[in-house]
Design brief:
The structure is a single chain. By secondary structure, the chain is mainly α. It has 2 domains: 88 residues, Orthogonal Bundle (Cyclin A, domain 1); 87 residues, Cyclin-like (Cyclin A, domain 1, Orthogonal Bundle). It is built from 12 helices and no strands. The longest helix has 18 residues. It is elongated, with a radius of gyration of 19 Å.
């Protein structure tokens, strides 16, 4: 995500890359497929799938500038070699349906013009990619859960709109609770814990 921000690719590309990475590790172990290299490769693959192509050599150049100690061993050939392995792990299925399209339509349908609420909702959707929600729940329902959280946070009553959707609100609220639980637990994830996890995988910086 940090690399994507630096090279200014669209958020959808980042979301697709993260989804690819999560799909890969459903089938492969982090010991077998090095996470740092897989992350780079998924971003490269997602940029092509989303027609926002970033050259692999540029990824190598910028990642070394951002993290010279951690990524100094990776070269262009490493990304291109891992690309085929990632494609095989994905069964060559590169289509990803995201909550973004549904979110835009829902916000318009609900006549939500509150700028702050819109920003909060989009931000929550982006944060869901730090979880496994996209692998478990329909994208439109994730969008509804994010709208629900934002409406409660902004004290905006859109109960009638939700009722008109005839959607199972228990399912929507359950997803909302997963997101809120994530926010609570995310605060406890320190850089030290992340580094410790990498050390356990025997990944030398």
């Amino acid at each position: 995500m940090k690399l994507a921000q630096h090279i200014k690719v669209r958020q959808r590309v980042v979301a697709t890359a993260i989804t690819y990475m999560r799909r890969v590790y459903i089938r492969k172990s982090m010991v077998e497929f090095e996470p740092r290299l897989v992350a780079l490769t998924c971003l490269y693959l997602a940029s092509k799938a989303e027609e926002s192509i970033v050259q692999a050599r540029n990824l190598v150049f910028y990642i070394k500038r951002l993290y010279p100690d951690e990524y100094n061993k990776y070269e262009l050939k490493d990304i291109l070699g891992m690309e085929m392995k990632v494609l095989e792990a994905l069964d060559y299925y590169l289509v990803v349906f995201h909550p973004y399209r549904s979110l835009s339509e829902f916000l318009q349908d609900a006549a939500i013009n509150d700028v702050n609420m819109n920003q909060i909702t989009w931000g929550i959707v982006n944060d869901t990619y730090k979880m496994d929600l996209i692998l478990v729940h329909p994208p439109y329902r994730i969008a509804l859960a994010c709208i629900y959280i934002a409406s409660v946070h902004r004290e905006k009553d859109i109960t009638a709109w939700f009722e008109d959707l005839h959607e199972d609100m228990n399912l929507v609220k359950n997803i909302a609770m997963e997101i809120l639980d994530f926010y609570e637990n995310y605060r406890t994830i320190t850089e030290e814990k992340v580094n410790s996890a990498f050390s356990k995988l025997a990944l030398k910086p």
